[in-house]
């Protein structure tokens, strides 16, 4: 029998099918599946004709949900829902077992990133992957990553091996970026270089992913995380901008097949984005974001009192200094940086994010309670501190999107700038006349910590 499901549940299984055409032509209004969730369907409102239609998706040979049936030009919502549920009910288990939904893709390999590689010992597994594969507390994350991995057809044959053994942070960051881009509605090709080729809404761009890891040599190696406010200030103003600089300039200067990323045939003439995340120290991503824009724009934010009122002032800086090391401030002013259209940042490409998204999608969990505590952007232009928030993740009213924490830092000198309306659902940071300002920051999250209590057996 057909059953109604949440949008989050529907999206968790079918995110790979989403593309810009859905977002420009229709709006999904209700979602259904059969009992064992081998079929999913949605009823949509057609913007152009002001009527309804339904679509039905089934798993193919690669375990992906893809279109198998649909009907348009239905006058009202109730009729469309009845027709869709009737179609789901009419498809028997025998039809599904006999290959209903197969689309002649037998040569395509089935992917499951969370299924351990055969004979891979515990000792060789990355500790975070071992937790993902075995810890009941991470079952929601494991379930949603398994569904998403059906769509991750990376040209890199070592993706699964790296995810499970020695590059877990880098690979989960790529999975997260993919989920954000698909949720927004782009068609995404997970390529070799740059990592993502994106198109949709009359707009194409490329994305290269990178991460900040621990420094193993050089002036930034062996620096302990801050333990008090004074150390934190020094860390945020000097150490962290230099860490960002190392990763970003490495991608700026790197060549693939003798060419910079933006010179490759797949990327020529298109905006190019570098997506960066901070994994250099446990918990550092909760306070590192404020160190990125001073390095990118060469502008320091100060809070002063003017006429008894707090006012934000922007002060140009030419260098980033940490102890006896100094580097130029202003990544966007570096040679060749004009080919980098923007920097994408998020502190949410982590297992807690995947766990929350899995819970929101209705995957099985063993939590008695789960609370999320953090800061959202303050809409006051003269505030440099976020607004505190607390949310009950297990509440039926709790909603979360992959893109909630994503920030796009635009390059004011970009040869191929990114129009704001090309990525309308993301938070944008721009610089003009020496002043940095945000667009679409309402409700966006700066950072958070998730705490959960498991049900004891």
Describe it for me?
This protein has helices spanning 7-14, 20-25, 77-90, 93-97, 127-134, 139-149, 159-164, 168-184, 229-253, 292-297, 351-360; strands at residues 3-5, 26-33, 39-46, 51-59, 65-74, 187-190, 196-200, 203-212, 255-256, 259-260, 272-278, 299-306, 309-316, 319-322, 325-328, 342-345, 367-376, 387-392, 407-410, 427-432, 435-439, 445-454. It is globular and about 70 Å long. The longest helix is centred in the middle third of the chain and has 25 residues, at 229-253. Helix 6 packs across helix 11. The chain folds into 2 domains: 3-97, no CATH class; 111-457, no CATH class. Helices cover 25% and strands 30% of the residues. The chain is built from 11 helices and 22 strands. The two termini are 33 Å apart. The strands form 6 sheets. It has an 8-stranded mixed beta sheet with strand order 6-7-8-11-16-19-20-21, with helices on both faces. A 5-stranded antiparallel beta sheet has the order 1-2-3-4-5, sandwiched between helices. The chain has 457 residues and is of the alpha+beta class.
């Amino acid at each position: 029998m057909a059953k109604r499901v949440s949008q989050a549940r529907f999206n968790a299984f079918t995110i790979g099918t989403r593309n810009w055409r859905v977002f420009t032509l229709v709006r999904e209004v209700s979602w259904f599946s059969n009992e064992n969730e081998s079929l999913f369907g949605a009823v949509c409102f057609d913007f152009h004709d002001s009527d309804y239609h339904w679509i039905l998706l089934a798993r193919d040979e690669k375990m992906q949900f893809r279109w198998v049936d649909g009907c348009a030009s239905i006058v009202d919502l109730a009729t469309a829902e009845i027709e869709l549920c009737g179609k789901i009910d009419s498809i028997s288990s025998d039809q599904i077992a006999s290959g209903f939904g197969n689309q002649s893709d037998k040569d395509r390999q089935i992917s499951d990133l969370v299924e351990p590689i055969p004979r891979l010992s515990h000792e060789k597994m990355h500790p975070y992957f071992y937790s993902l594969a075995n810890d009941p507390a991470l079952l929601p994350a494991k379930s949603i990553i398994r569904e998403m991995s059906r769509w991750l057809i990376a040209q890199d044959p070592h993706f699964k091996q790296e995810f499970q053994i020695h590059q877990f942070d880098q690979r989960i960051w790529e999975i997260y970026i993919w989920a954000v881009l698909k949720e927004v509605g782009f068609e995404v090709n997970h390529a070799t270089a740059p990592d993502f080729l994106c198109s949709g809404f009359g707009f194409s761009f490329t994305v290269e992913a990178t991460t900040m890891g621990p420094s193993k040599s050089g002036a930034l190696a062996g620096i302990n995380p801050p333990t008090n406010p004074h150390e934190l200030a020094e860390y945020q103003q000097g150490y962290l901008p230099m860490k960002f600089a190392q990763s970003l300039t490495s991608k700026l200067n790197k060549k693939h097949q003798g060419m910079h990323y933006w010179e490759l045939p797949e990327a020529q003439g298109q905006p190019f984005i570098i997506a960066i995340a901070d994994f250099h120290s446990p918990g550092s991503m909760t306070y590192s974001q404020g160190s990125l824009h001073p390095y990118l724009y060469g502008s320091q934010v100060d809070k002063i009192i003017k006429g008894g009122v707090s006012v934000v002032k922007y002060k140009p800086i030419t260098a980033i200094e940490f102890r006896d090391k100094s580097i130029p401030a202003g990544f966007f002013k570096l040679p060749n940086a004009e080919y980098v259209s923007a920097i994408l940042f998020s502190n949410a490409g982590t297992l807690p994010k995947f766990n929350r998204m899995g819970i929101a999608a209705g995957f099985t969990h063993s939590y008695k309670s789960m609370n999320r505590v953090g800061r959202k952007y303050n809409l006051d232009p003269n505030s440099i501190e976020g607004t505190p928030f607390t949310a009950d993740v297990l509440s039926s009213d709790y909603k979360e999107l992959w893109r909630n924490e994503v920030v796009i830092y635009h390059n004011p000198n970009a040869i191929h700038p990114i129009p704001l309306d090309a990525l309308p659902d993301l938070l944008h940071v721009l610089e003009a006349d020496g002043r940095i300002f945000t667009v679409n920051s309402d409700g966006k999250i700066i950072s958070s910590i998730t705490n959960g209590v498991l049900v004891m057996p």
